[in-house]
Amino acid sequence: MPETISIHAVPATGTHQVVGACPHDCPDTCSLVTTVQDGVAIKVQGNPKHPQTDGVLCTKVSRYNERSYHPERLLQPLRRSGPKGSGQFTPVGWDEAISDIAQRLQAIVNDPQRGPQAVLPYSYAGTMGWVQGEGMAERFFNRMGASLLDRTICASAGGAALDATLGGKLGMQVEFFAESKLILIWGSNPIASNLHFWRYAQIAKRNGAKLICIDPRSSETAEKCHEHIALRPGTDAALALAVMHQLVTHDWLDHDYIARHTLGWEALKERALQWPPARAADVCGIPVAQIESLARDYGACVASGAPAGIRLNYGMQRTRGGGNAVRAVACLPALIGAWKHRAGGMLLSASGTHGFDKSALSRPDLRAKGPSRTVNMSTIGDDLLRPASPTFGPAIEALIVYNSNPVAVAPDSSKVVQGFAREDLFTVVLEHFQTDTADYADYILPATTQLEHWDVHTTYGHTDVLLNRPAIAPMGQSRTNTDIFRSLAKAMGYTDACFADDDLALCRVALEARLDFDQLLTDGFVSLPLPDAPFANGHFPTPSGKCEFFSERLAASLGDGLPDYVPNYEAAAANSSYPLAMISPPARNFMNSTFVNVKSLRDIEGQPLLEMNAVDAESRAIRDGDMVRVFNARGEYHCTAHVGHRARPGVVNGLGVWWRKLGPKGSNVNEVTGQQLTDMGRAPTFYDCAVQVEKSSLQQ
Ligand SMILES: Nc1nc2c(c(=O)[nH]1)N[C@H]1C(S)=C(S)[C@@H](COP(=O)(O)OP(=O)(O)OC[C@H]3O[C@@H](n4cnc5c(=O)[nH]c(N)nc54)[C@H](O)[C@@H]3O)O[C@H]1N2
Ligand SMILES: Nc1nc2c(c(=O)[nH]1)N[C@H]1C(S)=C(S)[C@@H](COP(=O)(O)OP(=O)(O)OC[C@H]3O[C@@H](n4cnc5c(=O)[nH]c(N)nc54)[C@H](O)[C@@H]3O)O[C@H]1N2
Ligand code: SF4
Ligand SMILES: [Mo]
Predict the structure, then answer these.
(1) CATH architecture of the region 580-695
(2) Ligand lying closest to the C-alpha of residue 588
(3) Nearest-angstrom CA–CA distance, 437 and 413
(4) How far is the CA of 123 from the centre of ligand 2 (A)?
(5) Which of 222, 323, 235 has the alpha carbon at shortest distance from 282?
(6) Which residues, judged by CB distance below 6 Å to any ligand atom, belong to the binding site of ligand 3?
(7) Residues 659/435, Cβ–Cβ less than 8 Å
(8) Cβ neighbours of 560 (radius 10 Å)
(9) Alpha helices in 149-221, H assignment, sequence order
(10) Given the CA of residue 46, which atom of ligand 3 is nearest to it?
């Protein structure tokens, strides 16, 4: 690594290094160093100067070049030339594309029967950048008065649970896990999805910490922990309540912390006492002794004063009771006073820590006064098929997709595909590649990648702020998302001054109120000054200022203000038609559906896999490597069975999220997932999905 890392504009010749930020939806938000030779990026590495990154990237992003310079990269605008979904397109000039799109949108907006609410943006975290994310896009859609999108597809059940319990997406600072003496890794597979946390957990382990993984799957992480509790999917609240039962009955409690900094203890105690370990063991499908041992380890921290940290992750909140489960677990640290230590407490998301206000970027003031219709991205399948009605409002007539691949990632694919295939739906997709979603577009607009544009990033797994400088010029005719929305705004006749802001101005606007932007420009990342132990003395930003075991708001909305065990929608009972519970966590070398088309990474993953326990495989005469059909009433997909230790009996793990067109018979795991929503946060229940599996007639 050369000594100086340039953070200034990159000259077209010579060799330079440029500091950027990883744009992906990953808690680690690494600082990147891109080596550029004569205008071509030749290497992307982790920044050794950024403590959280520590010079290390995951396998995926160390191949970032292979993705940006991919031969199938979209380099010019395309217009549909075949039937919807056929993937047939012809090149078109930018001016023509923008002008035609603007006219088509304008016609909908101006039609009194349809109006702006018939237009829907659909986006998620393809990039987590503030600028290429919603920077210009939200201004555009606010000005238009389009429908709002409820961005629930990933984290909103857990987010709502944290809000109710702790007062926001707040928690431990990730680096202090290195000092913890007990770490519960709960619904999280950090070796795949939170690598830099795993580094801290390893330091703790070397210093004598015990690591316990709570996960139905024997994941890459579970097998490296001291203990693995392989509970049934969706039963975490029962486990947490039984741990509380043990804390109460053995008096492993920090009475002083509970008295001063919590709300609703007496009621929670009563609820916990209804959950003796034997009851939870039955629900979770695990031995009683395992629950007792977990509680003993956790409770021992009260007497010893050893800090206990819980790394919760999003895997545990993708079932019907996901919000309640996160709430139950989030009560535990207060019971043993773990928050008193900086290496104690819990972390699900730290995204609420930074306290930035996005409104200077998104400009909600541009939206005309009056009610707006909100569409939930997790039910896009049903919603695209909904006719106009007084309750729903106008049918969705136009869809602008950016930073997301809903045809692959949204639940209940057959509905999603049917919706996207509507001939009367006008669809524009801003993309790097011709994804499954892009196949259904009327226009595909080529977007720049992180190597080619400016951005700023806050994170949800640590608390630094990062800048992304462009390392190379935009490839082909690609344009930044911001530039595309700027052009569309102009073509629609929106003359507000904010549509003239360039990307560097947007970076500044996003953050300036909270930090020294010039320092960010110089260093590439900034650490915010934060207290080491956020709740050592209480001060939870809840309505009561306490850790709310009992929530008035939830009591009013759900009829129960305490966390409880909420059984899955889909029981997967042995005697039912769909006796196997399926979860579909990410494959390690993909990022949701991103990177599936990068050959070297796809080669590592091989093919879409369904992990099965030998008991379930043998009873179906399925052998390791057989092609299987996974099905339920919603649909079916085919993949290769991987028979072994990773799946517990009764549970199958369908690793996601493959591009449909790169999987057997052009389908993927979301053919079988459903659109029912979680108890809190209106989120999808990807891991609450009962299926049957049989040997497939397809050949490998
Ligand atoms: N390599 C890689 N990294 C990623 C991603 C990726 O696709 N690939 N995706 C990114 C995104 S968008 C997100 S949201 C995060 C996701 O990463 P995480 O937040 O870690 O969530 P998942 O990977 O969905 O699930 C984590 C673990 O929870 C387990 N799990 C499933 N159901 C349950 C349950 O009911 N209870 C419990 N206790 N455990 C359960 C799964 O088996 C899995 O091993 O990772 C990010 N990082
Ligand atoms: N079965 C099942 N389904 C799941 C999940 C699961 O665990 N199981 N996980 C769910 C979760 S947690 C999430 S977060 C969602 C993720 O779903 P999505 O947010 O749709 O994420 P990706 O599949 O990574 O697709 C992002 C797309 O954005 C594009 N993109 C990236 N950067 C840019 C840019 O700068 N400009 C433009 N225009 N495009 C860009 C990429 O090329 C990519 O195609 O999937 C969900 N789906
Ligand atoms: S995906 Fe995560 S681990 Fe990989 S480079 Fe990006 S932020 Fe780092
Ligand atoms: Mo996610």
Answers:
(1) Beta Barrel (2.40)
(2) 1
(3) 11
(4) 9
(5) 235
(6) 22, 24, 26, 28-30, 57-58, 60-61, 195, 591
(7) yes
(8) 15
(9) 156-165, 190-193, 195-206
(10) 5
Q: Please tell me if the CB atom of residue 461 comes closer than 6 angstroms to any atom of ligand 1.
A: no
CA 697–ligand 2 middle distance (angstroms) = 31
631 bridge partner residues: 636, 692
Using CA positions, which residue lies closest to atom 45 of ligand 2? 409
Nearest to 429 by CA among 67, 78, 64: 78
Measured in Å, residue 170 CA sits from the centre of ligand 2 at: 24
* Nearest ligand, measured from the Cα of 590: 1
Q: Whose structure tokens read 């495989």?
A: 617
Ligand 2 in reach of 183 Cβ (< 6 A): no
With cut-offs at 50, 70 and 90, classify the pLDDT of residue 1: very low
The protein residue whose alpha carbon is closest to atom 46 in ligand 1 is 26
Task: Give the residue among 53, 51, 7 at the shortest CA–CA distance from 30.
Answer: 53
pLDDT digits (tens, 9 = 90+) for 387-399: 999 999 999 999 9
Locate the ligand 3 atom nearest the alpha carbon of residue 32 and give its number: 5
pLDDT tens digits, one per residue of 106-160:
999 999 999 999 999 999 999 999 999 999 999 999 999 999 999 999 999 999 9
Instruction: Decide: 442 and 421 in contact? Cβ < 8 Å.
Output: no
Q: Closest residue (by CA) to atom 36 of ligand 1?
A: 316
- Residues pairing with 34 in the sheet: 18, 44
Cβ of 668 less than 6 Å from ligand 2: no
Cα–Cα distance for residue pair 79/30, rounded to 1 Å: 36
pLDDT confidence of residue 700: 62
Give the model confidence (pLDDT) of 532-588 as tens digits.
Answer: 999 999 999 999 999 999 999 999 999 999 999 999 999 989 899 999 999 999 999
Q: Which residue has the CA at smallest separation from atom 6 of ligand 3?
A: 22
The token pair that represents 292 in the structure block: 């007792």
Expressed in angstroms and rounded, the spacing between residue 592 Cα and the centre of ligand 4 is 7
Nearest atom (ligand 2) to Cα of 410 = 47
Which atom of ligand 1 is closest in space to residue 155's alpha carbon?
Answer: 14
Choosing among 3.40.228.10, 2.40.50.140, 3.90.400.10, 3.50.50.60, the CATH entry for 158-348 is: 3.40.228.10
The residues, ordered by sequence, that sit 6+ positions from 174 with a Cβ below 8 Å of its Cβ are 27, 52, 196, 197, 200, 347, 350, 461, 462
Q: In angstroms, what is the span from residue 278 Cα to ligand 1's centroid?
A: 28
Q: Which atom of ligand 2 is nearest to the CA of 430?
A: 38
Going from the Cα of 26 to the center of ligand 4, the distance in angstroms, rounded, reads: 8
Q: Which amino acid belongs to residue 268?
A: L
Q: Is residue 7 scored above 70 in pLDDT?
A: no
CB 184 within 8 A of CB 311: yes
Candidate CATH numbers 3.90.180.10, 3.60.15.10, 3.40.50.10860, 3.40.50.740; the one for domain 78-154+355-462+474-515: 3.40.50.740
CB 425 within 8 A of CB 397: yes
- Which of 646, 647, 613, 652 lies closest to 629, judged by CA? 652
Q: Name beta bridge partners: 692.
A: 631
Q: Give the closest residue to 431 by CA, choosing from 1, 51, 67.
A: 67
Give residue for tokens 């409104």. Answer: 359
Fold matches, 78-154+355-462+474-515 and 580-695 = no
Rounded-to-integer distance, Cα 481 and Cα 476, Å: 15
Cβ pair 363, 145 in contact under 8 A: no
Please state the atom number of ligand 1 nearest to the C-alpha of residue 234.
Answer: 35
Domain assignments of the chain as residue spans, ordered by start:
78-154+355-462+474-515, 158-348, 580-695
Say how far apart CA 333 and CA 308 lie, in whole Å. Answer: 8
Q: Atom of ligand 1 at shortest distance to CA of 586?
A: 7
